[in-house]
Amino acid sequence: MDTFIFAINAVLPIILLIGLGYVLKQTGFINDHFLDVANKIVFRIALPALLFYNVYSVNQLSDINWPVIIYAAIGIIVLLGLGLIFSNILIKDRKQKGIIIQGIINANFAIIGIPLAESIGGNMAVANVALISLVAFPLMNGFSVIVLSVFNDAEKNTNVLKTALIKVIKNPPIIGVLLGFIAILLRTYIPVSNITNELSFSLERDMLFLFTPIKWLSQIASPLALIVLGGTFKFHVIKQLKNQIILGTFLRSILTPLIMLGGAVILAKKSTYFAFDNNMYPALIALFGSPTAIASAVLAKELKNDEDLAVQIIVWTTLASIFSIFVIILIFRFLGLL
User: Fold this and answer.
1) What DSSP string describes 45-73?
2) Of 57, 62, 79, 154, most Cβ neighbours within 10 A?
3) What are the C-alpha distances in Å from 287 to residues 43, 76, 129, 215, 309?
4) Are 335 and 264 in contact (CB under 8 A)?
5) Which domain range does residue 260 map to?
C-alpha cells in the first residue's frame, strides 16, 4: 500500500496540472495566444533559469556523478540506433522517419522529467537531473536536428552538422545549463575565507538582487510548462497516422524505459563503476521514462518534416507516460531502489 501511495503522489501532481491546462483551454479561460506566449516564457526564460539554478546548486565538480552522466549519454546514442532501425524497417515516408527517431531520443526531460524527479527524490534528484542535462540536452537536440535534416529532401544540400551546431548553441535550456556549469568552474578559483570557511564571493550572498529573480523564475518553470502542455492537447489526424502513432508511442513509452532503466539496474549490480545509488534512479527515470519533448514539434515544423505526426506522438506518449511512469515507480519502489 505504501508503494501505491508513493507512486500516486509522484504522478498525480503532474496529471492534475496537465488536466488543469486542458480544462482552461477547453473552457476558453486561456487561448492559443496565451499558450504561445507562455510557452516562449517557459522555453526561453523560466526553464533556462531553472536549469542554471539547479546546476549552480552543485558545490563543486567533484560532486558530479560521472558514471550516471556517461550512462545517460550512451543511452541516448543507443536509442538513436534503435530509432534508425525501426524507422527504416517500418516507415516508408522519409519525412516521418525523422519524426519517429526524434520521438524516441528527444525526451520531455525538462518539463515532465524535472517535476517527476522532484516528486520521487526531492532536491537531490533535481540536482542530478540538471547534471545529466549537461550531456542530455546537447545530444537530444543535436541528434534531433540531424535526423530531421537528413530525412528531409529539402535539406539535402545544406550543411547538416553546421545547422545542428547552430540550433544547439542557440537552445536556451542548453545555455542555462552551460552558464551553470561555467559558474561551477569559476567557483573552484574563488578563495575560501579563513574565518567563515565559506567562499569569499557567491551569487546568493553578494549578488542577491540577481540570484533572487533567477530563483523565482525557476520556481514557475515546471508548473507553467505543465499547464501549457495540457492546453496544447489536440486530438486530430489520428486515423491516417494510427500505425505511426502506435510505433512512436511503443518505442518511447515502453521500449525505452524497459531497455534503458532495466539496463541501469542490471549494470549497477554487475559493474563497480556503474554502481548507481538510489539518489540516481529518479534522474534516470526522468530521462528515460518521460514522454517525447514538446519542442520536437517545433523542430519538425522548422525543418519541414511531418508536424502532424510529431504533435500526435507528443500527445500519445504523454498520455501513455501517465501509466508507464506509474508502473516504473511501482517496480523501482518494490525493488527498494526508490
Assistant:
1) IIHHHHHHHHHHTS--GGGS-HHHHHHHH
2) 79
3) 18, 9, 8, 23, 22
4) no
5) 2-334
- CA-closest candidate to residue 96, choices 109, 83, 108, 80: 83
**Distance in angstroms (rounded) separating the CA atoms of residues 333 and 2:** 9
Residue 161 near residue 149 (C-beta atoms within 8 A): no
Residue 161, helix vs strand vs coil: helix
Which amino acid, residue 15? I
- Helices in 151-207 by DSSP H: which ranges? 160-170, 172-187, 203-206
pLDDT digits (tens, 9 = 90+) for 25-73: 999 999 999 988 998 898 889 988 988 887 787 766 666 778 888 999 9
Distance in angstroms (rounded) separating the CA atoms of residues 189 and 182: 12
The pTM of the full predicted model, rounded to 2 decimals, is 0.79
Domain count, the chain: 1
DSSP conformational letter for 251: I
Q: Are the beta carbons of 288 and 261 closer than 8 angstroms? A: yes
CATH number, domain containing residue 150: 1.20.1530.20
**Helix %, strand %, coil % of the chain (to 5):** 80, 0, 20
At 151, the amino acid letter reads F
**Cell of residue 199, nine digits:** 567562499
Q: How many residues does the chain have?
A: 338
All 3 cell numbers of residue 102? 526524434
Angstrom distance (rounded) from CA 91 to CA 83: 11
Let me know: does 151 contact 305? Beta carbons within 8 Å.
Answer: yes
> Residues 231-251: pLDDT tens digits?
887 777 788 899 999 999 999
